[in-house]
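Take the subject:
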Amino acid sequence: MIIKKIIIGLAAILACAAANATVIGFDDLAGDPALPLTAGYAGFDWEGMGTIRADAYPGSGYEAGTVSFMNAAYNRDGATAAISTPDGSAFGFTGAYFTSAWVEQEISFEGWRGGQLLMTSGAFTLDTSTPRWIGLGWGGIDTLVIYNSSGTQWAMDEFTVPEPGSLALVGASLGLMALRRRRRPDRTTAHSRCS
């Protein structure tokens, strides 16, 4: 009986671990820097952003910052960028890799929900040679705003958000385990009555 519980518990943990994040790598797009990132791509609107191929500018931060196979997203015109849900539903931002395209710069983040500022980050320094993982672990936002200090572009890759189903899966697993525990009679009480 104990082994069965352990197996069920491990299966639930493995299922949750396997369904915990969606990674957006932008590699299924053309990577044409003349085109804006299409609204609705991967379930998000991408204001002020495009995609670029890693080989578009050899030796640049675009090349260094492409962590996935072929493309990275970037802030077009070096301006502030915003990522939001088209319908205003909440999402979580786990993190992403960022690299400055041309010069060292700082970026910072804001998380918004329904027009209200919920979260702000400090500044993160980016260089042109090493992708930097910036993991914020924010949840319950509908817009992520990315500011930069230099007015030049940065590359972003492997934009990672939690899958909505993973939290539900964890909750359902815990609920079933609690329900199962509640339904079983207490063996110590039953044993003491018989003595």
Summary: The chain has one domain: 22-162. The CA atoms of residues 93 and 161 lie 5 Å apart. The radius of gyration is 22 Å.
